[in-house]
Amino acid sequence: MPNTYRMNHKMRSIMAIVFILAVALISGCGSAVSVTDQNNASADSEVLSPITRTVKDASGDVEIPATPIRIAVLLDYYADHLLELGIKPHASTTSLVDHQFLPYIADRMEGVIPLGASESPNLEALLEAEPDLILAYAPSHQDIEDSLRKIAPTLMLDGELMNDWRQLLLELGRIVGQEELAQQKLNDYLTKAESAQEELNRRAGDEVFVVMRVMPKELRVYGVDDIRIGRIIHHELGLNGLKLAEGKAMQTISLEELPSLNPDHIFLMENVEDTAKSRLDELKSSALWKNIKAVQKDQVYIVEQQLWNRGIAPIGSTQIIDQVLEIVK
């Protein structure tokens, strides 16, 4: 009886060991099949993934890389949008002012290849940059379109998109495959603007704000119908402005016309040219200027022209809102 027990016990032990080994072997085989299937699926995915895709631009259908990496922008304004989408341009044109990248994003453009002014990009530098996609501005670059397409796939972006950076952001999101991110960034901006509007309404109420620009030969004012800086200040932030004659977005005025405007606040864009600075000094010293309500209340705010005029884009517009909240108390 003891011998039988020991034999049965030994047999059960052997069978248990065999069972464990069998399970381990089956599991291992199962894992191997799973990994192989995943590898095959991954390989199939790579085979099926398109190398290029077709996008429509102002000229028609254009075949571009499915995932562009080295993007060259021929309008410095576009760089702001790409940076907002987490993409640093490979190459970019520069501002006419000092031939530099826009100052408010310059710290994020380190290493980007400069291509000269947007109005006349350096095609030799563009060729040497070896981009895999070029973003051009149709109204300015139609004359060199053929040359651009010989360098790399080129999208000629419609001039109408310049009128609304919000639509341009969504369009660029589609081009680079970041539609959801572009929509999220836009939603975040609109939420920020709405919150800022509520705060500014508490601070300023019905007071009137004017955006002015001192240029070398003239003084400009921007009204509530301006679709760029006017849209931010008067519509998204809800600050009262001026309705210019005939629904004009902007008009040139003389020093003698300033008293008729008589706003409570002035955002004053100062051009960097020495002649513009001299004109501003002349303006500040005049008796007409000193009698304006905004001047008497010390509510004239000198703002950077490169941001307030050229920065009407996702990053720039956000910075403008931050500045308005900081200076309007």
TrEMBL record:
Top-rank taxon, per record: Bacteria
Protein name: Ferrichrome ABC transporter substrate-binding protein
Residue ranges crossing the lipid bilayer per the database entry: none
Signal is among the record's keywords: yes
Domain Fe/B12 periplasmic-binding: 70-329
Family: Belongs to the bacterial solute-binding protein 8 family.
A Pfam family assignment: Peripla_BP_2
Lineage: Bacteria, Bacillati, Bacillota, Bacilli, Bacillales
Database matches in InterPro entries: ABC_transptr_periplasmic_BD (IPR002491), Bact_iron-sidero_bind (IPR051313)
Cited Gene3D superfamilies: Nitrogenase molybdenum iron protein domain
Subcellular location: Cell envelope
Keyword field: Signal, Transport
Naturally occurring in which organism (per UniProt): Paenibacillus woosongensis
